[in-house]
Amino acid sequence: MTIVEQPAATRALLPEPEPHRVLGTGAAPDARLWPELYRLLVRGRRLNEQATALTRQGRLAVYPSSTGQEACQIAAALALEPRDWLFPSYRDTLAVITRGVPPAAALGLLRGDWHTGYDPREHRVAPLCTPLATQLPHATGLAHAARLRGDDVVALALVGDGGTSEGDFHEALNFAAVWRAPVVFLVQNNRYAISVPLAAQTAAPSLAHKAVGYGMPGRLVDGNDAPAVLTVLREAVAHARSGGGPTLVEALTYRIDAHTNADDATRYRPPEEVAAWRERDPLTLLARDLRAHGLLTDETERAARADADTLAAALRAALNTDPALDPLDLFAHVYATPTPQLREQRDAR
Amino acid sequence: MTIVEQPAATRALLPEPEPHRVLGTGAAPDARLWPELYRLLVRGRRLNEQATALTRQGRLAVYPSSTGQEACQIAAALALEPRDWLFPSYRDTLAVITRGVPPAAALGLLRGDWHTGYDPREHRVAPLCTPLATQLPHATGLAHAARLRGDDVVALALVGDGGTSEGDFHEALNFAAVWRAPVVFLVQNNRYAISVPLAAQTAAPSLAHKAVGYGMPGRLVDGNDAPAVLTVLREAVAHARSGGGPTLVEALTYRIDAHTNADDATRYRPPEEVAAWRERDPLTLLARDLRAHGLLTDETERAARADADTLAAALRAALNTDPALDPLDLFAHVYATPTPQLREQRDAR
Amino acid sequence: MAQALNRALRDALAADPDVHLLGEDIGTLGGVFRVTDGLAAEFGPERCADTPLAEAGILGAATGMAMYGLRPVVEMQFDAFGYPAFEQLVSHVAKMRNRTRGALPLPLTVRVPYGGGIGGVEHHGDSSEAYYMATPGLHVVTPATVADAYGLLRQAIATDDPVVFLEPKRLYWSRDDTVELPATVEPFGRAVLRREGADATLVTYGPAVPVCLAAADAAREAGWDLGVLDLRTLVPFDDATVCAEVRRTGRAVVVHEASGFAGPGAEIAARVTERCFHHLAAPVLRVTGHDIPYPPPMLERHHLPDVDRVLSAVARLQWEDQV
Amino acid sequence: MAQALNRALRDALAADPDVHLLGEDIGTLGGVFRVTDGLAAEFGPERCADTPLAEAGILGAATGMAMYGLRPVVEMQFDAFGYPAFEQLVSHVAKMRNRTRGALPLPLTVRVPYGGGIGGVEHHGDSSEAYYMATPGLHVVTPATVADAYGLLRQAIATDDPVVFLEPKRLYWSRDDTVELPATVEPFGRAVLRREGADATLVTYGPAVPVCLAAADAAREAGWDLGVLDLRTLVPFDDATVCAEVRRTGRAVVVHEASGFAGPGAEIAARVTERCFHHLAAPVLRVTGHDIPYPPPMLERHHLPDVDRVLSAVARLQWEDQV
Lengths: 349, 349, 323, 323
Ligand SMILES: Cc1ncc(C[n+]2csc(CCOP(=O)(O)OP(=O)(O)O)c2C)c(N)n1
Ligand SMILES: Cc1ncc(C[n+]2csc(CCOP(=O)(O)OP(=O)(O)O)c2C)c(N)n1
Ligand SMILES: [Mg+2]
Ligand SMILES: [Mg+2]
Hints:
With 349 residues, chain A is of the alpha/beta class.
């Protein structure tokens, strides 16, 4: 009665002891990809700043910034083909935008004129998901459905370190592994769930270690190293696409801003810690390598910023106009055909 | 940024490749313990048979038999001190009885005169739990509470292979590890959840491998080897008692009977499989070693059976009398003091 | 009724390759109530799939499948075992169409065997319909007859929105030789008068329909001519039929198995009263399960509405004291 | 109100070493609404404990703690985030005393910030009280005033049974300088007449109480003298006070923020009508949230009952058309 698969097979599911890194390792740069990554990082940072500013001006109800996590956001979007699906959590507006959803539409939920500002089917991006980890079983189910239909579609789902504690995380990963569904789970471990630090969230050696309990590979990556995140995600997506089943990727990163504009992060984390992570800013890390290889000049840097400023200005303009609101919309989409009860309520308005 | 603890530390959390075994390995027997284990196994088997017979006679609403799993049931009860707490699942009547709850009381739920037939605080046995895995967070919470109070109390919770797929399993283990709560989780992996085989339940190398994802040790044991199960559970309980935190133990066993009397197991598993596991009957395995060491004679065997028959007869007698039923009890325990609404409903009867 | 449900599932699977069944033990075993018997064999284990044991996972995965365009039909093994999926149901299933302005409808059916009366132990006899009724975005449907079991389930699967399809456990074994399958597909939102009656109307659904029919029979002796109205769909609610009937008789008793307080009957009584106030000779009364956790099998008959309790409510309809 | 709740928790922690607070972000941060501000510092991180992010785990662990004899007070960060714990709440918390014939009572308080009106995005504005009311075994309590926030929360923690304590989010910032803390501990099951009125009674609770008081003010101009009744506890329900008042005025409107269909008002209207039928000059009407998923922030004011909607319901109380 030999029960456990070969220890070697098990070892292959465990993450490597050190997170995968590319930047600063002397690895040869991809002269086409890296500058593009940099441009997207700059743009992402600028959008984070712009959205935060719009919140102060009352133009967004709330904004959970991904400043510091832009490498994960950009890589998540770039790892996918257009036909694939992205399942974002509530903090992942940037990934949604990078996937092609217009910024103002991506910010619909947080602006508050409607719950989802874009058509998920058009962009193959699920609604930004507020109830934590609940989008993960959707990703599993969608990936499974695509496979049942014989379509070449991979789903990539994002979740936070805190979200891994939810039962839905467990159930989604287990279903995915049993079904060998083409889905990739990316945990952005930014070390906090609002105020709760990682040590109060888990006692595991790493979150990637959870993978072995589902029989899928777990991978660790430096979440502030954009080429590294993209590499690992592309491998995981390719693995899924080729029928290899799901992968759990843990990206080690840090949330530089407060949880949202409504949060006061000084209550629960020391400024030194934030300062140390600022040193590892994904933009700085990439810029350093790019400059070392002569792939970033003052001029291209300026161009990247100008491009970002243009996008931010467009976003500002879009959000500074009041959205057209029709209270009757409240009744229009509850069911395909409103029930008589809903019609009555609508007509009584 | 070294993230993952020493690989050696991680390795210590992973289960050994082969389940722990004692019987048939030439290990020296414990001349006091093993015959007692055997007596309890015989008794347990007899009670399983008796309860199944009572179901046929309409004396129990339903009975989920643990025939084939008696080694786990007995060991779970024996691993604990009287001050410890046991959290059984719905199939674990035998563990409850072995812990000291009178058989007829332990069968209360399945008889159907009340939901729980015993006082959980008196016996430190939680109610038999029907919603799968929901008792696991209770065990974690109770163990944590005991530690907060400074009491030397360990909780042991039972769950099936199917139950490990539920979100509550995940959340209970994670809380336990983060809190270092003195709790032991025993998965009786009997290879089926009603009709669903293990391969449709998980793709993990073993269920014990899930432990590493919580940062607790996972252990594998031959669930039909009573001394082995007891050894592993006692080690886990001692580990918990000494402040070492939780352990996940997976016992490999088999459900010889159908899921319950209402089930038809021939629909989903081949008779050869059942026959093969009958060869590994926990009673046979222990008897073989006992006889080899001269610790079991025809006479002690007869005595064990006689003892079991006596218990079974008492159970039969207890269940063959109709329980005293008072419909007004339905209103008596909903709240400490019935609400006016409940009083009205009671009085209207 | 189980057979009619089985036939409805089979016909739906045959009619539309996008229909997929998911649940615990629905494959090889055919479900603990045998409602999916033979379907895995006929349509393969991917069309009628056994899942891991995790209800939020099942409903969540089904949601993802529906997002991709399939029409999943999920089985929750028992009513109380649907609760782990409650967040998925309330926060996603019920809301997905609305939160996306109609871009992402979920054609998803959740089959829930519900109610008691079968001698089940704890957690096997809940009537959870009040939770679903209070959740906008769901259709809530429950058949009381063999024909409706077929007709309403086919309609549920054909509906482009999520449907909680409640199957009265104790009617699984009911038969009706007058019904030929396939029966007619039934639209939602139409209550049916199962029995005409001039004096008062029993408003009911699901497992309580046969109880009300028996009560109406028995009432004859007491000199009351009682109508029995089977709601069939709780959401949408058929105000027109219910009110027409209650206005005609001027008296109504709502009968269901779920607990009374904040139960389905509260809504029914409140809305009927709002709409028929000046036609009512007496307040709308309710005969329901008590406000207690579902009882153990040996006591369940003291909890379930029966003919006596229905008749004693009818007797309290102020026959002397007319307005 | 947040301060009164904070004071109630502090006093409860100080009075009884068995009281333990558990939740997400309730420790160092003091809760996202600052209701537990300073408590971890004062009583230590084990008495006011941040947990992993898993609501079923929180409530399940609290259940185990209560089984051992502690008195846990759990915070669900927002109403909709209580749903993952639904199975624990319904299948265990509500039933534990009953299933053990009283041997294992659970003195457990579940604090749930609920309702809308604070500009929160999706899933941050649910009114989930109908689910809890329909679950026998739970007390369901909701304060509308600063004094009650203190008095009812102390009573909740002192109660030997589980209490779902619903905190109206939009009243967190409300103040009342006339109240000195600690306020009186309030028994459950007593509604309070916040304002006397001869013509009709507004029956309400929680976040809708200030709306009803404002409506009663405005009604003066229209010549109506409206009473406002604050239920305070939905379970147990104060039939005596409510019925006495409605019988006196002969007209009632139930007002709440939760959706109307199968919502709390259904029970209130149904039971008031049952008990006061011949005193009613008009059917009991309801002014509630619509039967829709909670709206996005920019539209929520179209969903929430306001003075106008209350007054237009009052106008429909058949003033001409008396019986
Ligand atoms: C089911 C659920 N519970 C609680 C919350 C409230 N909440 C919103 S964000 C958050 C912390 C999330 O932490 P993490 O998963 O690490 O993601 P991060 O915010 O760091 O991106 C909490 C508790 C929620 N949204 N959903
Ligand atoms: C939450 C929940 N879902 C479904 C069920 C129905 N059910 C009862 S036993 C069972 C199978 C359990 O399998 P396993 O955990 O392996 O335990 P075993 O029966 O093998 O002892 C199922 C699905 C349940 N009791 N609880
Ligand atoms: Mg985080
Ligand atoms: Mg099993």
